[in-house]
Amino acid sequence: MMKQFFTAIAFVFACMPLFAAATEKPNLIFVLSDDIAQGDLGVYGQKLIQTPNLDRLCNEGTRYLSAYTGTSVCAPARSSFFTGLHMGHCPTRANREIQPEGQRPLPADTVTIAKILKTAGYKTATMGKWGMGMFDTSGSPFNNGVDHFFGYNCQRHAHSYFPNYLYNDDQRFEIPENQGGKKQVYAQELIQQDVLKWVDANSSDPFFLFYAITLPHGRFEIDDQGIYKDKPWTETEKNYAAMVTRIDSDMGELVELLKAKGIDKNTLIVFSGDNGSSFNPNTAIGKRFNQTMDGKLRGFKRGMYEGALRQAAFAWWPGTVPAGRVTDEPWAFWDLLPTFAELGQAEIPQDFQPDGYSLVNFLEGGPAPQRDYFYWELHENRPGPIQAIRWGDWKAVRPAPGADIELYDLANDLGETTDLAQSHSELVSKAVATMNEARTPHPDWPDPATAAAAKKKSQKK
């Protein structure tokens, strides 16, 4: 009997590392590339731009054909991820600029993924582009759960890849080598080095990293055209290709660091673009790189078609996320907050209801969560939003405020070439009703009817 007791005790101690590993909180990294298109990556069909590291990570993990952004410009796309809310509820539904620097801040007391993970003991950081509020506002990264920040706060400032300064936390980090119009220090190099330094320093604790890479957003600048220098292309084309390949090499460096620190098998990386290509596919550069993959996806940045909303995306977590899997089951940015909260064993506040669903089972190889619909809107300099909604394989688009609804069958017409609204009036009615149901009225984000009435009233005065 005593022998059996000691055998049992020995077994428990022998298995303790396994039990600990089973409950260890994973590191969580979301990499968001600004304006990269599905067709820019080799695994999605790109022939001219080299992305060997991203292609390898896709093949070592799961690649998503229907990964949806929050909406089709950057500030609300980032806000959708950070708040777990789609554009019917998100506090930021457009790019709204503040002078002399910054964007409309997240409201006070906004629930964010960084705040949630901090309650579970996570170290948190954001590098790259913030654009959700300057440091003296409620939208400061440090009012929203971020321990460390490095990069551009203002997304207008981020248009310069050779800036005079960046921010290290809330302090200006001067770059004298770029003063007076000189272009000696590439901002992405400084940002990448800060990412590597921070991950290295925090590798013994569970961490959450939001890496908002500014590349390949315009202005299209690069410090080294590399393998594209002698291509018979325009300077913009060579710079764009080099920017995409720079993302690729930086991702390779990050993964090598994870492996060197021995934490790769306990780290989830989710990679995505934020709003599809900034180039009209009919322009020279759009045609050069075939970003729509021979017309497979329609549209680009600031639109509501699939080319704007579907992103180049993958998940990588060796031993947990299935390798070599390619799936067309849809998910969206607002799903990542409940996903990361579940993985981090963090409690979502009881009085907060995210719009997303946890993808943990989906990441591990199961089916995507079932839901009633996906919803998007975008407000710019127009009376009300453009809108889109998807349920099942049906997709409805309102391409301009107050415009007639277009209806597409994505299962048979992924390129959204044939509008079926005239022959499916009942589905159009359902789409309009669901669009109205999906959004919360807000004076800053009026619905098309309210905005049109206000504009008409102002014109009569």
UniProtKB/TrEMBL annotation:
Pfam families, sorted: Sulfatase (PF00884)
Region Disordered, residue ranges: 435-461
Entry annotated with the keyword Oxidoreductase: no
Coiled-coil segments on the chain, per record: none
Source domain of life: Bacteria
The family this protein is said to belong to: Belongs to the sulfatase family.
The protein's name in its UniProt record: Arylsulfatase
Organism (species): Novipirellula rosea
